[in-house]
Specification:
By secondary structure, the chain is α/β, with parallel strands linked by helices. The chain has a single domain, classed as HesB-like domain (Hypothetical Protein Aq_1857, Chain: A). Helices cover about 20% and strands about 45% of the residues. The protein is built from two helices and nine strands. The strands form three sheets. A four-stranded mixed sheet has the order 3-2-5-4. The protein is globular. The two termini are about 20 Å apart.
Amino acid sequence: MAISITESAAEHVAEQLQNRGCGLGIRVGVTTTGCSGMAYVLEFVDSLELGDQVFEDRGIKIIVDAKSLVYIDGTEMDFVKQGINEGFEFKNPNAKGECGCGESFSI
């Protein structure tokens, strides 16, 4: 599988999809930005686009476009709560470095 999701992340995404009332799954992609060069982009998916790859893990469909797949192949997506802060974290074996705030990475 090109991208996997932890139980915590799967529960969070499932809850958000249920609250939303629709959606096939979640799109995970990358964009050029940030101090390290690339940042993760997440959005709900209502319909597939040409070239999308669909992976399913823990009952959640993870959709990745072909361009992004090159940068995130092998990544594990987690959802972490620390005190009042919560958010997604990515364990990307392709990343060579991250910025200090963890918002962007370099390949």
